[in-house]
C-alpha cells in the first residue's frame, strides 16, 4: 500500500534540566508531528512546556511519547512492569503533557510508545493491553502510533482506538518487518543517501529492503526521523525536500 500523503514525526524534548539531546527548535520547522518525551525516559516539566509551545506556534501536532520509567537507560531497557502499574504510568505521562499542550492552545493528538516499550508491545499482548488501558484511562480516544501488524495495534483497534502505521527511515528491518534491535550492528542507518532513498521508497511504494536483502512491505502513514542522530536536522530537511520533489504531500495524520 502506498500513500500520496505522509506524516513526518520525530522524538523531541529528549533532554533533562540543562542537558539537551535533540534540536527541537530546528526539527519543529521540518516535521508535522512531535513525539514529546513525558519525563519517564527523558524530558522534564520545563522542556515539555517549551516544546508544546513551539509546536503549537508552528502547527505541529503534539504526541505523548510514553515509556518505561527508565531515565538512566533512556527507556531502552525492557522491564516487567505489572499491567495495572504500566497503565497508570501511561495515563500519568499523557496527562502531564496534556497540561502543557492545553496551556499552549493545543491538545495531545496521539500516543506513541518509546524505546523498549515500543518494541515490547509489537509482540507482548499483556503489555500492549496495558498501554491501551492507559490511553483509555485519560478518557480520550487518542490514536496510537506504532508498527504495522503489532499486537499494540490489534489491541487498540479492539478497544475502539484509531491506529496509525509507522515506518523508520533510519532503522534496519528484519525480513519479518520488525526493527533490528539496536544492540546489533547495522541497526541504525547512518548513510544520508540511504536514509533519503529509503524514505522515498516507503512513501511512494510501501516497500523497504530488509537487512538480509529481501523486500518488506511497509504500510506507513507516518515516517519517523530520529532527532538524536548526528546531523538529524539537515537529514530531516533533505528527506522532506525529496518527498515533496517526487510529489508526496507531507502533512500530519490528525
Automatic annotation (TrEMBL):
One of its GO terms (molecular function) is 5-oxoprolinase (ATP-hydrolyzing) activity. It holds the Pfam family LamB_YcsF. Its EC number is 3.5.2.9. It is an enzyme of class 3 (hydrolase). It comes from the Bacteria. It catalyses: 5-oxo-L-proline + ATP + 2 H2O = L-glutamate + ADP + phosphate + H(+). Keywords: ATP-binding, Hydrolase, Nucleotide-binding. InterPro entries: Glyco_hydro/deAcase_b/a-brl, LamB/YcsF/PxpA-like. Forms a complex composed of PxpA, PxpB and PxpC. Belongs to the LamB/PxpA family. Catalyzes the cleavage of 5-oxoproline to form L-glutamate coupled to the hydrolysis of ATP to ADP and inorganic phosphate. PANTHER family: 5-OXOPROLINASE SUBUNIT A, UNCHARACTERIZED PROTEIN YBGL-RELATED. This is 5-oxoprolinase subunit A. The gene is pxpA.
